[in-house]
């Protein structure tokens, strides 16, 4: 039973054990120097590294060759729930460093990764899968990636049939990911990722709706707040930002090219010999969608881009889409969108057809924009925080002039943010244990509308000369 936490960033290593290739094990709990564990919402596998003191030459005696298993159990004192504890098994894939400390001691460091990454590399799939996309993904996770971890899923619509031909499990999941539409939210914003709690196949909306687990803020003091008897106020310290880098600079040319503002799709139905054109407009669709502030209790969600006119017809950037998708489809029933390729045992077309109209333009825009506002922060760590969690950020607005009370908080960095990635850093040294977290928090909207004008702000004449006749030279 762990004791109470007294200092922000405390941690305890309950177990650090290596299982060797001959099945034997060695406990290195008391030899650990550092552990780093990385989670990312766009990465299906956990990764990290561990270093430990080797004063008995275990690297040669066992030996350690980079094909071992690593058991880790790390906790923040006072945290006892399974979801609050890091308790994982990893595959050690390579030796990255082995610097000597002295003639008889050295530090050994290994990189590790999730066991599912190894299974994915070893296997290819050649079989037919039927069912909803969410059920198919779970089938792949259990049968092909051999994962026994918890699976958190947002159910999809439609019954599908897929013929997998010499494809890796992860590549097939990525193909499915793009086409999946949520049964609850009608949204195509699915992400497939792993956390220290398990695997997730969920839409951005299902992540946004979760309650915030931390309230991070920065202040001018940036020191430790003392309480009675010389201890620090741990809960206050855990919510303080120790390092901060912000980024709201969008590349408007790249955003336009990638379909962040809008795009269109033209589908050719090879079965019915017809074609169809549809499009997506970021500004016209925004209020119909559920962005991060929709679930945050504020009731205020505004686009992160300005609706400023880009021509004399009052067109916005979304009215002039640059990106166009040209894709084939095949429907036996155009209205019901049934696949013309496959039938059931009774010869009936019951499977949902490939229907890019329902996802490709919306997904393209929303996944381009979900991290448009980002903040990279460093905080004192605890083992309950995961990628995909919701947190609140409150950053002060910087200005020399006097501001109103409403403007004291930065307009971009206030309210709910999604944790996009996390690096848990555990370090043991002579001064004690220290757990810090480097993470990136992102948002896809703001509370107040960005200022705009419906008149094209580009001057009619600009440049060095307004002469109608170009300058010529006699040679």
Percent helix: 10-25%
Low-confidence stretches: 220-224
Overall mean pLDDT score?
88
Radius of gyration: 27 Å
Proportion in β-strands: 35-45%
- Describe the global form: globular
Overall strand count:
23
Largest sheet geometry: 13 strands, mixed
Q: How far apart are the termini? A: 92 Å
Helical segment count? 9
**Class based on secondary structure composition and strand pairing:** mainly beta
Tell me what the structure shows.
By secondary structure, this protein is mainly beta. Among the domains are: 12-116, Trypsin-like serine proteases (Thrombin, subunit H), CATH 2.40.10; 123-209, 3-Layer(bab) Sandwich (Phage tail protein beta-alpha-beta fold), CATH 3.55.50; 252-368, no CATH class. Helices cover 14% and strands 37% of the residues. Strands 1, 2, 3, 4, 5, 6, 7, 13, 14, 20, 21, 22 and 23 form a 13-stranded mixed β-sheet that branches. α3 packs antiparallel against α4 (169-179). It is globular. It starts with 11 loop residues before the first strand and ends in a 32-residue tail after the last strand. 34% of the residues are buried.
Quickly list its features.
23 strands, 13-stranded mixed beta sheet, Thrombin, subunit H, mainly beta, Phage tail protein beta-alpha-beta fold, 475 residues
How would you briefly describe this protein structure?
The protein is mainly β and 475 residues long.
């Amino acid at each position: 039973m762990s004791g109470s936490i007294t200092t922000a960033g405390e941690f305890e290593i309950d177990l650090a054990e290596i299982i060797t290739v001959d099945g034997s094990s060695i406990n290195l709990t008391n030899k650990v120097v550092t552990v780093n564990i990385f989670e990312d919402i766009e990465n299906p596998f956990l990764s990290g590294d561990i270093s430990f003191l080797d004063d008995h030459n275990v690297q040669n005696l066992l030996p350690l060759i980079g094909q071992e298993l690593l058991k880790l159990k790390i906790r923040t004192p006072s945290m006892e729930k399974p979801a609050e504890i890091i308790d994982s098994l990893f595959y050690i894939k390579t030796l990255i460093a082995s610097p000597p400390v002295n003639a008889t001691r050295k530090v050994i460091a290994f990189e590790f990764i999730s066991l599912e990454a190894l299974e994915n590399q070893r296997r290819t799939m050649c079989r037919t899968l039927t069912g909803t996309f969410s059920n198919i993904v779970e089938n792949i996770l259990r049968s092909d990636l051999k994962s026994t971890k918890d699976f958190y899923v947002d159910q999809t619509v439609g019954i599908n049939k897929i013929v997998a031909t010499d494809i890796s499990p992860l590549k097939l999941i990525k193909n499915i990911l793009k086409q999946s539409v949520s049964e609850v939210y009608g949204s195509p914003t699915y992400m497939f990722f792993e956390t220290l709690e398990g695997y997730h196949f969920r839409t951005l909306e299902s992540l946004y709706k979760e309650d915030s687990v931390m309230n991070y803020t920065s202040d001018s003091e940036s020191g430790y707040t003392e309480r009675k008897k010389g201890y620090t106020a741990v809960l206050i310290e855990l919510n303080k930002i120790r390092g901060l880098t912000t980024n709201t600079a969008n590349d408007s040319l790249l955003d336009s090219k990638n379909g962040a503002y809008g795009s269109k799709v033209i589908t050719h139905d090879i079965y019915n010999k017809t074609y169809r054109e549809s499009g997506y407009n970021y500004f016209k669709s925004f209020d119909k969608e559920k962005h991060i502030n929709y679930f945050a209790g504020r009731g205020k969600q505004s686009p992160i881009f300005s609706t400023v006119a880009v021509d004399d017809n009052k067109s916005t950037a979304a009215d002039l889409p640059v990106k166009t998708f040209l894709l084939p489809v095949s429907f036996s029933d155009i209205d019901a969108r049934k696949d013309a390729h496959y039938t059931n045992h009774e010869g009936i077309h019951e499977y949902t057809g490939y229907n890019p109209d329902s996802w490709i333009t919306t997904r393209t825009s929303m996944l381009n924009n979900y991290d448009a506002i980002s903040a990279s922060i460093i905080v004192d760590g605890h083992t309950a925080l995961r990628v995909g969690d919701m947190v609140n950020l409150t950053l002060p607005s910087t200005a020399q002039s006097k501001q109103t009370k409403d403007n004291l908080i930065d307009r971009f960095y206030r309210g709910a943010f999604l944790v996009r990635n996390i690096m848990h850093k555990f370090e043991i040294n002579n001064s004690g244990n220290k757990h810090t977290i480097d993470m990136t928090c992102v948002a896809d909207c703001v509370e107040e509308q960005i200022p705009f004008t419906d008149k094209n702000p580009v001057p009619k004449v600009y440049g060095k000369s307004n002469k109608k006749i170009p300058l010529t030279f006699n040679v």
